[in-house]
Specification:
alpha+beta; five-stranded mixed sheet; 4 helices; globular
């Protein structure tokens, strides 16, 4: 199973700057909610995919925020790891404080500040042998890796630290096929999320 298949809704970014939304369950009115926010629907490797082309950071941020809030009315099982939709008028120029990179069933993390390194260690990430980056603790499956990154990234946001999550997807055509079948029934709101992220 891919980490994209775990939550009901996964929001991410490709390396070339597209924002995408994947629905792993049918959600009532999702097509209208997402297309109204400017996302373009397409069938891709057996899954319904919604794409927002690269654009002005503030505009992408607002469109993705509208879509996310609308979807949260139907499910709280939503993960948002899109770097393209991150925008703030107070965000300093330059690279992120934390850079998470998924690949080969693990995550490599670099931290550019002491505060970012301390935050990673609070979340159980350990320095690599050369000290250049961090990795999650051993024994985590895809769900555990996703939860670790989601928790650390959300915590970073509350401390004013910037983060970027690379999913290892260069362009939309490289988004993998779904590993699970979508339910035919609409979802109902859930009381507790499995891997919830901050909201805008």
């Amino acid at each position: 199973m891919s980490l994209l298949d775990i939550p009901d809704v996964f929001i991410g970014s490709t390396d070339d700057g597209h924002t995408f939304v994947i629905l792993n369950r049918r959600i009532r009115d999702a097509d209208r909610l997402l297309t109204d926010a400017g996302f373009l629907p397409r069938e891709h490797h057996g899954r319904r995919l919604y794409l927002l082309p690269p654009g002005i950071a503030q505009d992408v941020h607002e469109r993705a925020g509208v879509a996310m809030y609308a979807l949260l009315a139907h499910t709280h099982d939503l993960v948002d790891l899109s770097w393209t939709a991150r925008w703030s008028p107070d965000q300093p120029a330059g690279g992120p404080d934390l850079h998470f990179q998924f690949g080969d069933n693990t995550v490599a993390v670099t931290a550019s500040t002491t505060a970012a390194r301390l935050l990673l260690e609070q979340h159980g990430f350990v320095p690599t042998a050369d000290g250049a980056s961090y990795r999650p603790r051993d024994g985590l499956d895809e769900r555990g890796l996703l939860g670790a990154v989601t928790a650390a990234e959300a915590h970073a946001y509350t401390h004013g630290l910037s983060a970027r999550v690379g999913l290892g997807i260069p362009i939309p055509a490289d988004i993998p096929a779904s590993a699970r079948r979508r339910s035919a029934a609409p979802t109902v709101p859930q009381s507790t999320p499995s891997a919830r992220r901050r909201t805008r």
